[in-house]
Amino acid sequence: MKNKMPTKEELLRNLESYNNILNKNTQDYLKSLINLEISCLNDQYIDSKTREQLLQLDLVDDISKYNIYYKALEILTNYKYNLSITRMKESFNGLNASIDSNDKKEQVFNYMITNNQAKIELFETDLSKSLKQRRMDKILDDLDILFRKEKKSNNLDKYIIRNKMDKLENEYETLDNAKYNMETINMQKEIVDKISKDYGIEKFPILISDYDNMHKKMIKEYPKVKVIKYKNFK
Length: 234
Known about the structure:
By secondary structure, the protein is α+β, with helices and mostly antiparallel strands. It folds into two domains: 172 residues, no CATH class; 46 residues. 46% of the residues lie in helices and 22% in strands. It contains seven helices and seven strands. A seven-stranded mixed sheet has the order 1-2-3-4-7-6-5. Helix 1 packs antiparallel against helix 4 and helix 5 runs antiparallel to helix 6. It is elongated and about 90 Å long. The two termini are 42 Å apart.
């Protein structure tokens, strides 16, 4: 079952073969996952140790991947806005959703599996910490420094400095005229919140990991599953 995605009927049928191995409560729990009634990531229904034990069974591993994939797909396909959804119908490995905005795509969800480890990525945009304004302020400071240098320079240096100033002035103008699509930003947040709630992971760890100046990410890990929530600052 590793390469081909089993159907709901196949999973239910295969689960019956575990009647003598799994107790009724566990079987009911797994049936609920297959029927998409609950999320395999929700700690309310099972503790981490039991989840890890169950995932040693190939069938449970497939049920979990099926649950994650189809719970997200169910939300994305029933969403009231038009999303661009890319999926691999015969495999667990590949489900991506993005929003068309101003001739470019803003990613909102991605699900993939590498070396039998599932990774869920959620994407949001945050305007509360404006990198745009910081960059504009830096450009003004740089222009001021170049302007003072220009006064003391010879003709060749002045030409080089003026070229740098022209580029910075063009960048400043571009940033100053940039418009944010608030509808897209709100859509991103709405979808991410809905999927997170459905998965049962409304709260991510407080620890936030910086990996560059434009993004931050929050990570929550489960046995064989990593959920990463990216905040893109603009």
